[in-house]
Design a protein that fits this description.
Shape: elongated
Number of helices: 2
Largest sheet: none
Order of helices and strands: HH
Distance between the termini: 61 Å
Structural class: mainly alpha
Amino acid sequence: MSRETDRETSRATDRETDQSSDAARRRRRAQFLRELTEARELRDRVQPRRAKAARLRHAMRMRTFRW
């Protein structure tokens, strides 16, 4: 009996650990994406000519893309 209860409790703690690690991973990912967006915005402000060229290239790619 004690072995079965030990297994059940270890499974429960594994699930809790997985959920907490998933939550932590999502928090880290969200933070990373926020910082990445901020860095891109800063780069665009600092290098407006390059940002404009990148926008034009992206627009051209989207115009020539076939759905």
